[in-house]
Model the fold of this input.
Amino acid sequence: MGITAMYAAATGMKAMDTKLNVVANNLANIGTVGFKRSRTNFEDLMYQTLREPGVKDINDEPNPYGILVGLGAAVSGTQLDFRVGSTEQTDKPLDVMIQGEGFFQVTTYWNGEEITAYTRAGNFFRNANGQLVLGNTDGSVLEPEITLGEDDREIEIDAAGRVTAIQGAGPDRTDIGQIELARFINPEGLKSVGQNLYIETDASGPAITGNPMENGMGSLQNRMLELSNVEPVRELVDLIFTQRGFELNSQSIQGADEMLRVVANLRR
Done:
């Protein structure tokens, strides 16, 4: 008596603790360019069947209900929310955002191997070699590689991803490179690895690549950035809800403990 309630409440507290960690991470990244919030999904655990629904009673009629006692809850998964965040006009020529579906492709290292990663962040810089790199810790190089010369000026990126610049003193614009995007059948199956990057998994499916505005890809907007899609009010409501859920589960444990104490005292 009461033991099942204590275990069920404990699973609820554990689930709420996980949700709290997810909410805290969302709030921590409220200022991260291109960040996508995560949502915590829950599921109920197995049930202890004390009486099967539909078992015939003394009148040989099926009982319309049974006796099922749940054993708690668990986190079934965290789900990325890829809705477009708010936008900011920066007037920086290497800042670019994706309007619609798609990810920028960059080269990074994961578990000691060079791989292609994906990002919605578009805060690019020019490194010492003239390559366009993402503004993260590793300076992940944009893929396919685009290299700017020392004399390139008035750099422009159009909606279709074409990068042009004026070279030297000449008045004419020159093509520098082409930005390609990638999309996935199930982007929520991507794995977050930090540094504003995602990597593909079996759940996401392989990357489908192409130029912006082609093959289902979104268009690009130069001198704009996509900011985090975290909504502070929504996260604070989730935070309060999670805290209250944790407290209620702890009260269930206290109630079950009181019942067990009463039972233990019956023999006195």
Notes: The chain has a mean pLDDT of 92. Residues 129 and 265 are 78 Å apart (CA to CA).
